[in-house]
Amino acid sequence: MEQDAQLIQQCLRGDGSAWERLVSQHARRIYNLCYRFTGNSAEAEDLSQEVFLKIYRTLDSYRAGQGAFTTWMTSVARNLLIDHYRKRRYDRITDSLEDAMPVVESKESSARPPDRHAMLGELSRQVQVALQRISPDLREAVILRDLQGLDYREIQKVLQTPEGTVKSRINRGRIELAKALSEMGVRAG
Amino acid sequence: MRWTCEQVEAKLGEYVDGLLAPPERAELEAHARVCARCAPMLSSVAGLVRSLHDIEPLEAPPLLVTHILDRTLGPRRARWSWGGNFGWFGWLLQPKLAYGAACVAVALAVVLPAMGFSWRAPRLGDLNPLNLYRTADRRTHLLYARGSKFVSDLRVVYEIQTRLRPETAIPAEPESAPPERFKPREPGSSGTPGPGPARQQNRVNQVPPSPVVIAVVLPGAGERSLP
């Protein structure tokens, strides 16, 4: 966190290498957030670039006293993701989710248990499919809590919603996601 | 107080995250033990959260950072760096490659001097394939000649030792028996003499050991030399 603060100060003084390090440190995190939200790698890459472009332009508005840089950055990304979602909402509603979904192997079809790494990779893809089935509010809450690892207070700051709402969304999101995975024949855990 | 299914569902997230106080936790677990609806839900959500925490973040596309920097800082020239320019040296550090290189170096260290190349005063002309071939050919013949000379010297020494050896060491043939070479030849036989050593021994026996002969032979052996 202190390192981020130092890098930000250097960036504000016009140090390009500090900005490069800042981008390198957080690009993966932002890309994952975008990918989990959109479910599309090309869109996620474009959105990640937009997020960093916005961060670069508004870096001077960040105040270290208001919270961690990661939280602020996630908040910027989340706002962009919401905007992106709203622009494409009608397309998403009219599109059939089933058409866009990859074939998911059901638990009954697996003859022998794969190794853990492959299993987690497969689970990651199945979770990605299931995430697209739940509402954006619940999806972002679950992504921030369980895939990005933010705590409740940070999520509250990012979503700018009361604590009770955050807890409720995370809770509902997990239940909906578990149901979606169960319908897909995936047994998590 | 017994919790309802709605209460359990509302507190499920906090329970999984370990944020419930012990009394609430006990109430939730007590309900889940007897509720056919909440027990599988609790199990599936807890399993889901464990799995989500196990999922590793995806790798970002390799050019993402470059594209971001291009859009924010503008197109930049590729900077010189050790990692970028000499990163391919990494494959040289493989053990099998290093072992092979060491073997080649040892082989060159042995073969090149044999082909006329001097490590102390290296000359480019020494590495000329024609010169290398000529030197190798000359040295091979030299080696062969030295070997031949060595064998010849050994024969001389052996002959001297044979002459100096007392006759008692050699079993003499009985005089009654006729010499092998005077035996009547069988019809159809080649008539070749017997084994070499025996015949040589017989010939040596006919010459009495004399210090004069030795004195004549030894200087002659010593004078042999190769051009």
Kindly describe this structure.
Chain A is an all-alpha fold. Chain A has 2 domains: 95 residues, Rna Polymerase Sigma Factor, Chain: A, CATH 1.10.1740.10; 93 residues, Winged helix-like DNA-binding domain superfamily/Winged helix DNA-binding domain (Arc Repressor Mutant, subunit A, Orthogonal Bundle). Chain A is built from 10 helices and no strands. In chain A, helix 1 packs across helix 2, helix 2 crosses helix 3 and helix 2 crosses helix 4. The longest helix of chain A has 23 residues. About 9% of the residues of chain A have low confidence. Chain B has 227 residues and is an all-alpha fold. Among the domains of chain B are: 50 residues, no CATH class; 71 residues, no CATH class. Chain B is 60% helix and 0% strand. Chain B contains 9 helices and no strands. In chain B, helix 1 packs across helix 2 and helix 1 packs parallel to helix 3. The longest helix of chain B has 36 residues. The termini of chain B are far apart. The C terminus of chain B is likely disordered. Chains A and B meet through helix 2, helix 3, helix 7, helix 8 and helix 10 of A and helix 1, helix 3 and helix 4 of B.
Strand and helix order of chain B: HHHHHHHHH
Number of helices of chain A: 10
What is the CA-CA span between the terminal residues of chain B?
Answer: 118 Å
- Helix share, percent of chain B: 55-70%
Radius of gyration of chain A, in Å, reads 18 Å
Distance between the termini of chain A: 33 Å
- In angstroms, what is the radius of gyration of chain B? 49 Å
What is the tally of beta strands of chain B? 0
